[in-house]
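TODO from last week: model CTD nuclear envelope phosphatase 1.
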Amino acid sequence: MVSQLPAQSAHLVKLAPSGQVPVSVVSNLQSPRSSPGRRTLVPILFAGELGTYIRRLLGHLAAKICALLRPVLGVAGVTYRDVALSPAMAQRLASVGRKTLVLDLDETLVHSCYSDAEHRESGNCAQLPAGARPDYLLSVSIDGLEPISFQVYKRPHVDVFLDFVSKWYDLVIYTASLEVYAAQVVDLLDAGRGMMPRRFYRQHCRASTSLVTKDLTLVSPDMSGTFIIDNSPYAYRDFPDNAVPIKTFIYDPDDTELLKLLPFLDALRFTKDVRSILGRRVNSLNSAVSGSRI
Ligand SMILES: [Mg+2]
């Protein structure tokens, strides 16, 4: 579907898998183009216990370097590079107008859980891996009651994601969570950059059952230029042509879902009416799901 859209102004860059680093070091040393001195040196270096020690040392160094570069290169070795717009693309963008991207918060941009011991039974932080380290710790008092402690885990690549999409769209947060909690989390994510000034909370949702839906007309009356990214299909039940589904995030340091959306979102801003694209996307997903149930 992306190929049917106007040309993109950016592309994915694949980097070499980190596991190949020590292998390439060894093969370079053993290259047939090596000098005679190097040819005699290599068997000595890699023979016996000394060779084992050197191989382990190289492997250890490679692992350390990969760990240091991981936040820069991305968990899966995939990153995204912005490319300047051509005059024709800039003209096209100006003619279709800047659009509004509505972002869900929990399980889309972050995952939060109770860190208090008494809440552990209700299935929260205790379910995460022992080595999981939260990005933020919050203490939230609801209705004047005793404060509740939360751990907040950012979805991998959320900072890069927000940097890109805030250049392309007007960002709005629309969450079913309570304002007293969500406002703090969004402030932390925003980090004073002013990317998400407009926010809608639980009180702005519709709730006929225990599940809530979101009313995108509160965000903007123009449905041709407004869409939401939300992990809950029920949230955009009333606006299926204005939604981009995303996998639910709980805790996964290798998650790349936000990064994978960037090429699509970069292209979508060039369309006149997002529904002409997103209607096909959601409907095809629904067909696939219903087809699999038959
Ligand atoms: Mg959610």
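Done. Residues 104, 106-108, 230-232 surround magnesium ion (CB under 6 Å).
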